[in-house]
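ugh ok so i messed up the first submission bc i forgot one of the chains. this is the corrected input, ALL of the components this time, i swear. 866 residues overall. if the numbers dont match what u have on ur side tell me asap before i send this to the collaborators (the ones from the other lab, u know who)
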Amino acid sequence: MPLMLELQGVTQIFGGVTALEDVCFTASAGDITGVIGPNGAGKTTLFNIVTGIYSQTSGRVLFEGRDVSGLPPEKLATVGIVRTFQNIELFANMTVLENVMVGLHTRSRSGLLACSLRMPWAMREERQIRGEAVKWLEFAGIAELADVEAGNLPFGKGRLLEIARAMALQPRILLMDEPAAGLNSRETMGLAALIRQIRDMGVTVMLVEHDMELVMDICDRIVVLNLGRKLAEGTPRQIQDNPDVVAAYLGVDE
Amino acid sequence: MQFDHILQYVLSGLSSGAIYALIGIGFSIIYNATGIINFAQGEFVMLGGMLALFFLQLLKLPLWAAIPCAVLVSAAAGLLFERLAIKPLRQPTPINLVIITIGGSILMRGLAMLLWGKDTHALQPFSGETPIGVGGATILPQHLWILAITLIIIALNKYYFYHTVSGKAMRACSYNRRAASLVGIDVRRMVLISFVISSGMGAMAGIIVAPLTMTSFDVGIMLGLKGFCAAIIGGMSSGMATVLGGLILGVLESLGAGLISSGYKDAIAFIILLLILFVRPQGLFGKSDTERV
Amino acid sequence: MKRELMKFLLFAIPMLLLPLALQGGYMLNVMVFVGINTMLAVALNLLLGYAGQISLGHAGFFGLGAYISGALTTISGLNPWLAMPLAALVVGLLAFGIGFPILKLKGHYLAMATLGLGIIIYIAFNETVTLTGGPSGLSGIPNLSLGGFVFDSDLKNYYLIWFFTLLVVLFSLNLAGSRIGRALRAVHDSEVAARVVGVNARLLKVQIFTLSAVICSLAGSLYAHTMTFLAPASFGFHFSVELLTMVVIGGLGSVYGSFLGAALLTLLPEFLRAAHDYDIVIYGILLIVMVMFMPGGLVRGVPEIYRKLASRRGNAADA
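and heres the new structure output, hopefully the right one now
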């Protein structure tokens, strides 16, 4: 399997506090890679570095062999690295459909003048965007909510919308920060099916998650972080049997 | 250019700088307690000067009584402003807060204009107008008053923030409002106190500067903005950094006006303000932030 | 789409017919100002209401447009039709250049920085006496003309200004409804989310800031050529606050709301003579009251009150 994402010695220091130290691992194309670890392990920091929200103190992030360290989020989104957030970041005052249409922004071209003058090609592009956005809503199973204001969605539907919006960018890799947080067990099952479907469409998935059942169920590989360092890496089976991981989760001192 | 002239500019710059420092600390106190930049801050400076004049000339109070009265009434105005405009706000987004403090600011300015007219007034100097020689330059007794009163206020301020329960609670709020409320600090009350203190301080600044620069209903904009500039140079600190910021601004402005052009005197403060905001938004003396979002 | 066009016609046609009802005279002149203020308020609203970025320096861009047009036509004797785009170009470049550092700032800091920028520009109007005439003003600015047709009466100016006003309104409506407007609203709602889905928030904010400044410049040029006289006092901090008030009263993020706000604030002093002296008191109260009780502005607040009243009446009828 070719490598999709490769972290080389990533270190992040916040005002003297080391949040990540020399983290190295890879995610293969077509895999679902899980990143787990106790609270404060540095999982979200890692995501923020990979998606350009923070720039790391040292180390490199390679995406399909190319160094993308320090690129801003909007640039990373256009090369194919897209993410969702733990607390869901929607455009609350816009409709569900419009949210997904923003996800198609980078895939449309009409400039400021063409838009303001309603040039025929701009109008055509707008219709295409709308049509495609509807498709992604159908993919996520929320097409009937198209005209609802996103701020009024129940949490679980908001999560689906965020995924639909991210998928509209047709990412190469989708990073999901605790996608199951706040979902009930039925919604979590739906989510697992959706993530598998995304993987089957050829999108590499990486997720941070606390729901171990979900992680063990859907992940091909798992990386365990503890106190900012990589503790273990392997298949779900290997991770479950790893005494270091068990110790870290139970807080046993060695 | 002679040394005497430079000395003269520096000396008068220091006294206006002290005023900017006082106003700047007022900005910082509210900002640290609430995250709000109070666009009405300058109007309390105006209120101080105008009220002192009102108590002195219309009510014929002696100076020593007129000053505390003016400060108290201004602080009461600050209290009312917080209770009537800031606290009831249902959606306290930054833009709403900017708009509402601007609204409060022009409302106060308008009311002052209706009450006291559009004329410019001079407050009497606190102790005569005989210049005092310093080296080859001279300063007025009022300059000394300004420096002395500023020092006293800064010392009181320091005492309050470091040696009283309420001041310590205020500092706790500035580090982390949520954590402060979790340990039982009444954050809403701290917000109110911050408005009262900074409007009182602003008023005092307005009173001590009025004998030198005259006062009118519309002096608040410029003085307020320059105080804000001092606070920005000082990295929104409510201590020495902002005092230094004020002094630096005062001296630069005075030198610029003297050596370059007096017409652009006011522009100097704003050019410094923009430069600092663009290049070092954390202030001249602050450490840089690692956060990007 | 059809509905949008109908709405625009419902707005445009009455405005074009209005001079017939006014039968010339003073009110026509006031309506010229309503047109200019509408352009300015719409421009500020694109920035504030759509992109969520405040500016307290827009009077400065308005003034720059006016003074550049004024100086080029009086001192260099340039044709006003050439001076107008030239002024817009200069203002656009200035806004684009300063937009990058200034829009890195957020909220209160952005407000203060734009306020400072506006005041620097205002001071320059007063001090560059050879170009602007300083505090005593710049006079003798030529009217615009087409062939031999000179825009020199209130009626001609009305159509001149409202031609451009309607153009600006239509242009802004289209923009707001397009992918650009959508991206702007996205940046307003959550800048970080907009960025992770690929919206270049920084560039977009600078672009809309520039566009907004260019519209102000255009309005300024038109103002210069219809008034034929300029003084710095029209372009100070006070006017920036007046523009802000128009946008907030009308409704953030509503193009028609900006017209409503501009019309209300321009006409108020005409109907309420006393309002002239009290204007800043009134603006102050309006700003506070609107933010507290009607944050959506008149365009959203009034229908909401109407609905509430209607449903209460409905309930009463049921009982």
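quick check: The first strand of chain A starts at residue 3 and ends at 14. that seems consistent at least. Residues 120-140 of chain A form the longest helix (21 residues).
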